[in-house]
Amino acid sequence: MSSSPQLPVARPAKAFPCGPRSGMVRRVFDLPPHQIPTAENWFTFGSRTPRSPRRASSVCLVRDCSKGVETYLTFRPGGSPMGNVAFPGGSHEASDRATYQWFGPSLSQWSKRMDVLDQQLVQAHIVCAIRELFEETGILLAGTDEQSIIEMTDPEEWMGAREAIAGQDLPFDEFLRRRGLGLRTDLLRPVSHWLNPNFALRRFDTWYFAATVPNRQEATLLRGKGKWGGWQVASGVLAQRNTSELGDLVGQPNTVGLNFSRISYPAVEMMLEAMSEANGVVAYLSRARSLDLKHPDLLVRDGIYYLEVLGSMSAESSRPWQAAAGRQ
């Protein structure tokens, strides 16, 4: 194996039109340092069979502030394929396919919107999103009926439940059933679908959703596990993405001194761009999006490794998604 290439100078991701009539744009992002040895090995020894991806879900919490749309970002240790700084989320568990009380669009409606025929898989993505959001932030999208939403009344009890669910000592479906709660799936919006590049040692097939924070709930880190989390103005993060400002704020060994592309993942950066362009949270949530699978590829230029993403130049439209209520 040859020595690792010199890292490029920090700068924001660039866009390259693929052709005057293609309607597609090619985005190029810096590769995080921890992924360079794997990328180098893949390139040096030739493409091989990619590792099978795990199913995963993630949630972008959003809220309005005087500077635009804010979102909740967290630090994910261990060189997460979803980015070292990313939205709350994680991989599917067996309980995500259990039976749940269900409020909001039916599974058939969700299946049509996500263009996924397997309704059990659709359920798993939605339940995983709500469960991981609760584990990592304490935000619970659940209620006793289609109009109610649970309130956090006892922070210590809430944290204990989160720890038990995260440790798989308490199934999520049992936690909800004990409290007579159903999933408020109408509070989620699908916003993007990503598959990690072929060279990665750990790969996720991830659906990203967006949601607002219910009244009388507050995002907090999971005790003993979370290292950093906080609300960030999307436009502010992008304005400083060619600097190490956010990485220094997170303060972890694999974030300090690095620009945004090197501590995150193209999915996060591109969703932050959509947030920054929206005229508030309502506009951001109501926009219909192209949910075609995005699959970054490895790009090598002058011995330097990048991630390349091909996508539509008009990935979003102003047509709102009508989240009709109902059950399967």
Could you explain how this protein is built, in words?
- This protein is an alpha+beta fold and 328 residues long.
- It is built from 10 helices and 16 strands.
- The chain has helices spanning 36-45, 107-114, 119-137, 155-166, 172-178, 234-239, 245-250, 260-263, 266-277, 281-286; strands at 14-17, 24-30, 54-65, 68-75, 85-86, 89-91, 102-103, 142-143, 182-184, 189-195, 204-212, 229-233, 287-289, 297-301, 304-312, 316-320.
- The strands form 4 sheets. Strands 3, 4, 5, 6, 10, 11 and 12 form a 7-stranded mixed β-sheet that branches.
- Helix 3 (119-137) packs across helix 4.
- It is globular.
- The N and C termini lie far apart (53 Å).
DSSP helix fraction: 25-40%
**β-strand amount:** 25-35%
Coarse shape: globular
- Distance from first to last alpha carbon: 53 Å
Helix count equals: 10
The radius of gyration is 20 Å
By DSSP, the count of extended strands is: 16
- Structure class: alpha+beta
- What's the overall average pLDDT, rounded? 88
Q: What summary fits the major beta sheet?
A: 7 strands, mixed
In N-to-C order, the SSE pattern is: EEHEEEEEHHEHHEEEEHHHHHEEEE
Poorly predicted tracts of residues: 1-12, 15-22, 313-328
Descriptive tags:
four-stranded antiparallel β-sheet; 16 strands; seven-stranded mixed β-sheet; 328 residues; alpha+beta
Task: Describe this structure in a few short sentences.
The chain has 328 residues and is of the alpha+beta class. Helices cover 27% and strands 26% of the residues.
